Known about the structure:
Layout: E1 3-4, E2 6-8, E3 21-28, E4 31-38, E5 43-51, H1 58-71, E6 81-86, E7 91-95, H2 104-109, E8 121-125, E9 130-134, H3 138-148, E10 151-155, H4 156-167, E11 174-181, E12 184-191, E13 194-202, H5 206-219, E14 228-233, H6 240-248, E15 251-254, E16 262-263
Helix pairs in contact: 5-6
Pfam family, one: DUF3822
InterPro entries: DUF3822 (IPR024213)
Amino acid sequence: MGIGQKLMEIANKTKNISTHIDLSIQISLNGLSFCILNRDTNTITYLKHFKENKKLNPFDALDLLKHLFNTEIELQQDFANIHVIYINELATIVPKSLFNEDLLADYLKFNSKILKSDFIAFDSLEINDSVTVYVPYVNINNYIFETFGSFTYNHFSSILIEKILQIEKHAEDAKLYVHINKEHFELVVTDKGKLILYNTFDYSSKEDFIYYILFTLEQLKLNPEKIKLILLGDVDKDSELYTIAYKYIRHISFGARTDSYNYTNNPKSNYSDFVLTQSF
């Protein structure tokens, strides 16, 4: 992966594990997701989501994570590598030419509510010479650090942007990618393979959803009659989100993961779990 992953490492917990089993954990305040990859067989052997009906806080999310590690048999094996992905709105993209590690809080404070006590991290996106600045959940990092030793972590947007830019590398037109999750979605606009915009929006209705999309197109002076909208994540043709998008945007299609894994149990679709399964 071309992303500069953040590594937490502890000297007295150096791993001596012969397994080739990797675990990726997706952390959201709407729930947790887990993906296990057997590298010997190139097989995703476990892919499971634990969604919550109400939005959690980071402390509740940690309690849920501990509970699942104690109750899910598949999560109680030894892992060679553990990777954590954080999904939250506390992130922004900064061109590498303008990036200064001493100004992390300044990058976030204009579009996110952060506290002085927040720990701020960053991912380097080599594919387009930019940096994702974000707030991981320190209590979860500390728990995994103390329980398993070294692990890597990234923001969800870093992986999403990298994968989309890989797909769009030789494109000759503009695209609007929308990755849909419960109660929020990520929006990525590219033009001729270049990143034009990344943003994330909360929504509670289909009207919210289409409003943010059309507003973005208007601000970027992109024509809904011409732009190609590509949907990823938790959506299908029967979804009210698809229906309302199709009403206003002429060209809509579903994306596809680019992995070559075998699956013990197939994902919901070819475009679901787009980031989680491609995070290894």
